[in-house]
Design a protein that fits this description.
Layout (H helix, E strand, L loop, with lengths): L3 E9 L3 E3 L9 H11 L3 E5 H7 L7 E5 L11 E3 L2 H15 L3 E4 L3 H7 L5 E7 L7 E2 L8 E9 L9 E8 L7
């Protein structure tokens, strides 16, 4: 049985996920949720996301998609394209006995995988935030909201959020 693909994303109400190579907000409470959603799983990210994080994510198989020749950071598995990343992630998920592969950004990687995903775990950052990278639009005819939880702004958080889970309508997509 193949692992399903979940997109894990934090985005502003206007769809922005990044600005100048970073997240344009500071929400420590959401980072805890991100960790809970991804730990123990293969995670797929683009090179810019890897560079923004700056290190391998602990207790996860870090797969970085890049076309940049010679890019080989310590603690990452390199894939030349999304198809190879998905093949590697499936093998790693099978080896770990886990049922999900997490896609964690950025914009290009989300755009290449939204059609293959069965679930989107999104944190909606309340506000219209300026940025240069956006999450692809989730077609409402293909996706349905299955849960929503309002999350008040924590003491150290720059914004209040809502945690929303969307599932693909009908048969689940597989990688």
């Amino acid at each position: 049985m193949s692992a399903s693909l979940v997109l894990v994303v934090a985005m502003a109400e206007n769809g922005v996920i990044g600005a100048a190579g970073a997240m344009p907000w500071h929400i420590p409470s959401d980072l805890k949720r991100f960790k809970a959603l991804t730990v123990g799983k293969p995670v797929i990210m683009g090179r810019k996301t890897w560079e923004a994080i700056g290190r391998p994510l602990v207790d996860r198989d870090n797969i970085v998609v890049t076309r940049q020749a010679g890019f080989s950071p310590q603690g990452a598995i390199i894939a030349g394209d999304i198809d190879h990343a998905l093949i590697m992630a499936q093998a790693l998920a099978e080896g770990r006995g886990c049922r999900e592969i997490a896609v964690i950004g950025g914009g290009e990687i989300y755009a290449q995988t939204i059609g293959k995903a069965s679930r989107i775990a999104m944190t909606i950052v309340h506000g219209q935030i300026a940025g240069d990278t956006a999450f692809p639009e989730a077609d409402p005819s293909l996706w349905q909201e299955v849960s929503r939880e309002a999350c008040p702004r924590g003491e150290k958080d720059s914004h209040a959020t809502s945690f929303v889970v969307m599932e693909r309508r009908g048969a689940a997509a597989r990688t």
